[in-house]
Amino acid sequence: LAEYYWSKKPSKQTGSIGILLNGYDNYVTNTIVFDYSHIGVVMNHGTNILTGVHTWNGGGVGIVNAALGNRMIGCYLDGNVLQLDFASQFSVTNTFFLDTQLVVNDVVPLIDALVVTDNMFVHPTPIVVKNIPYVLMNCVFRDNLNSPQATQATKALSKVGETVFVFDFSDVLLFRRIVRAEYSISLKGNTTSVPLSYLEMYDEANTVGNGGVALVNSTSSCAVHLNFVDPYANVTIIVTAF
Q: Which residues, given as ranges, of the chain have pLDDT below 50?
């Protein structure tokens, strides 16, 4: 599918769409969308399946998902992005991203059941999240080659006689909002593990050991702050953020 024959060069790109799905339960298989379709595939309704779809339409946007329940299996985005205007209940697996990205562009701050597994990215920033700090529920990001960020991460700090521990996860967490954090304290061979409960968008305090407080700053620095009243000696603290 294309807007022009390969031998013709358009003077400018139009707003054309190669495949527009305005219904449910459609299957698009073994299809190439090439120059110069403005957008390769748009899914405006749910429960559709793309299998073996290769979008090669001159850069820009290859595939747009705008509804729940759609799936992509074994597709190929060739220099054009996969744009998720609706990210919940969407699955993309075994797909190749050549010099392009997956862009989460949802305007709803809660994303439920987004599955991105077993894909290959050839791009320095494979997954891009827009400015909204999303909350994730039942989401899976696994075995995506060349993707340096994840939806959970663990960091450790060892200090002597300190009361303040700051764990900054902005360099490793994909979504810029910490929904939940767990930490453990190792002191003189004894280890205690304390889960932090769900925290809202703004800084809220939870009681921690030694009568101190824990702050999850999930809107600006994507960090966990542990502040203790009395210093620990030779303590190692491990924090996992989700």
A: 197-204, 218-219
Q: CA 212 → CA 1, 13, 64, 205, 229, distances in Å?
A: 63, 60, 47, 9, 5
Residue 133 three-state SS: coil
Q: What is the β-pairing status of strands 71-73 and 49-56?
A: parallel
Bridge pairing between strands 153-159 and 181-187 = unpaired
Instruction: Compute the Cα dihedral for 13, 19, 24, 30 and give only its sign.
Output: negative
pLDDT, tens digit, 9 for 90 and up, residues 11-33: 566 778 999 999 999 999 999 99
Q: 101 is written with which tokens? A: 């990205």
Residues near 200 by Cβ (< 8 Å), separated by ≥ 6? Answer: none
Which tokens in the block code for residue 82? 């996969």
**CB proximity list for 178: less than 8 A, separation 6 or greater:** 169, 199, 216, 218, 222, 224, 241, 242
